[in-house]
Specification:
The chain has 137 residues and is an alpha+beta fold. It has two helices and ten strands. The radius of gyration is 16 Å and the shape is globular.
């Protein structure tokens, strides 16, 4: 049997996964990364993207909108702002997430927020739009 690590994925709404995984592809803020058993301890922020899990029981994918991942060698915990199993994702849900990001960007610009916050909102919107284009729903 392949070497595995404990993988847990939670969002404020619910716990989505708790299983043994052989690899997890993480949409990190600085770029995609793959965590495997015995990975060096790491903490990273997440950008909107698809989190892919490989396990002995099969593969699964989750859309995440942001959050944090903590890799501890023999375990990986992901605390997502929002996480939706790709099997449950609909085009309407994706469109709603994009519209929410669009409104956040518009509000940040209108309220004359500090430049960094406007840039963050613009980046979120761009990531969500790219994700919506990439997904085949």
């Amino acid at each position: 049997m392949a070497q595995t690590m404990q993988f847990d994925l939670v969002s404020p709404e619910r716990a989505l996964a708790s299983l043994q995984a052989s690899a997890v592809q993480i949409p990190g803020a600085e770029g995609d990364m793959t965590a495997m058993p015995s990975h060096a301890p790491t903490i990273t922020t997440l950008r909107p993207g698809v989190l892919k899990v490989e396990s002995p029981e099969g593969n699964s994918e989750y859309l995440v909108t942001g959050g944090f991942a903590e890799i501890a060698g023999d375990s990986l915990s992901v605390l997502a702002e929002r996480a939706i199993p790709m099997t449950e994702m609909t085009r309407d849900q994706m469109n709603a997430l994009i519209e929410e990001a669009r409104e956040m960007y518009k509000t940040a610009k209108e309220e004359d927020q500090p430049h960094g916050l406007v840039e963050d909102a613009a980046k979120l919107l761009a990531d969500m739009e790219a994700l919506g284009t990439h997904m085949s729903l």
